[in-house]
Design the sequence.
């Protein structure tokens, strides 16, 4: 028993564990790291790709919430049920109205309709489905590998395996006190194999704390039941709004509007910032108004919530994060820690590079393994000889990118010309299908 235990703690066991994890799931971990890094700046990238969503010169005051909601209903008159209005994070951003389960994407794990509204004019700028834009597609790849619930659980398991990989890598790195200085050196004159190993070891050492934190929080986000067990509190999953509350008042002809409900809800938290308001669904539906207090680290999805009855206009319940238990506070930190919100702009940048480091660690470790198994020939690393080749590749990529942008712009311009014909053809086809169905009836 003692022999097997010592063998378990031996370097050979952890070396094989680290290697087999890298060869089996390393690519997926690198992919999750890259997409996670990009998703940290998802909103900025989305605005860059869609300039119409950026308000260059904000002027005047915001339109009322009731007028904003009226514009959304006018643009989507056949979408019944609850809508959630998300307030912009800056004067240059749009208001976003979320419709959780549109018929077009009803059977997908998460694919709500996103309606962008200009807060100063109340005009609907665009309507898009989650997962059908570049940034949301990448975020789905990060959270579920585009494989729905199976992918979601798989990403959680990969987070657990990343923890094992980081711990085993840290154990393998430790050289003892005598070899500490040598283990921190990067020898670029000893060949590609040695350079890859030195970069892998040093980068792994620097990024392991951040990667461990990201892996742990990602695992808990993928398996919220584990988080609830650890925290000892329910309803703390990211995106959850606490327990379901329904209206007990008698429906009448004078329901409370959005603006009035938000004003009533502001009472318990006069200094809090309004972040979201969800409209009632059905006669027993109720307003759910979400605020952010100055003490909350979660900026986009804070936990301060007030429920207001639509028929009576009275507050039904209040959720105040300052009164959370220690377990509740722990659970409320998981999401902002994983996204970097809790660490500010510096933390988000650190998380950005931590995600990229997973890809670099995978590539450098793979090069080391290929060279060691003689599948890739070790060679001298000559940076001065690489410089002309890199400059040439940069010029080629620049020309290709510029031409691709020009071609894309031309295609979009041409598509606008034929869009009315496509729409009319689609309408005609729909009418013909309906006629055939009616005939069959």
Sequence:
């Amino acid at each position: 028993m003692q022999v097997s235990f010592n063998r378990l703690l031996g370097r050979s066991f952890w070396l094989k564990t680290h290697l087999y994890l890298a060869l089996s799931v390393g690519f997926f971990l690198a992919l999750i790291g890259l997409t996670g890094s990009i998703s940290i700046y998802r909103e900025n990238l989305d605005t860059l790709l869609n300039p119409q969503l950026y308000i260059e010169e904000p002027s005047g005051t915001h339109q009322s919430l009731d007028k904003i909601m009226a514009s959304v209903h006018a643009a989507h008159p056949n979408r019944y049920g609850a809508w959630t209005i998300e307030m912009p994070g800056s004067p240059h951003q749009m208001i976003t109205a979320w419709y959780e389960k549109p018929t077009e994407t009803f059977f997908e794990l998460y694919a709500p309709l996103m309606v962008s509204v200009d807060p100063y004019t109340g005009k609907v700028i665009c309507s898009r489905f989650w997962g059908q834009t570049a940034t949301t597609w990448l975020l789905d790849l990060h959270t579920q590998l585009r494989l729905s619930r199976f992918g979601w659980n798989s990403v959680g398991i990969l987070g657990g395996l990343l923890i094992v990989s980081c711990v085993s890598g840290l154990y393998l790195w430790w050289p003892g006190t005598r070899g500490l200085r040598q283990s921190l050196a990067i020898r670029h004159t000893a060949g590609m194999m040695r350079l890859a190993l030195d970069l892998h070891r040093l980068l792994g050492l620097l990024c392991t704390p951040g990667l461990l934190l990201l892996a742990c929080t990602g695992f808990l986000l993928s398996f919220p039941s584990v988080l609830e067990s650890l925290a000892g509190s329910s309803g703390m999953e990211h995106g959850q709004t606490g327990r379901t509350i329904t209206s007990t008042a008698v429906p009448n002809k004078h329901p409370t509007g959005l603006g009035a409900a938000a004003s009533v809800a502001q009472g318990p938290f006069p200094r809090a910032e309004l972040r979201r308001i969800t409209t009632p669904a059905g006669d027993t539906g109720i307003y759910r108004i979400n605020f952010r207090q100055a003490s909350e680290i979660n900026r986009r999805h804070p936990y301060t919530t007030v429920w207001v009855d639509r028929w009576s206009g009275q507050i039904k319940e209040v959720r105040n994060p300052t009164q959370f238990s220690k377990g509740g506070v722990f659970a409320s930190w998981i999401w902002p820690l994983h996204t970097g919100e809790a660490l500010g702009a510096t933390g988000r940048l650190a998380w950005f590079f931590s995600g990229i480091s997973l890809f670099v660690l995978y590539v450098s470790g793979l090069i080391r393994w290929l060279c060691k198994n003689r599948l890739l020939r070790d060679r001298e690393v000559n940076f001065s000889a690489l410089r002309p080749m890199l400059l040439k590749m940069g010029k080629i990529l620049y020309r290709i990118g510029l031409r691709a942008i020009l071609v894309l712009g031309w295609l979009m311009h041409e598509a606008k010309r034929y869009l009315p014909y496509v729409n009319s053809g689609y309408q005609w086809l729909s009418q013909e299908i309906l006629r055939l169905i009616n005939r069959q009836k």
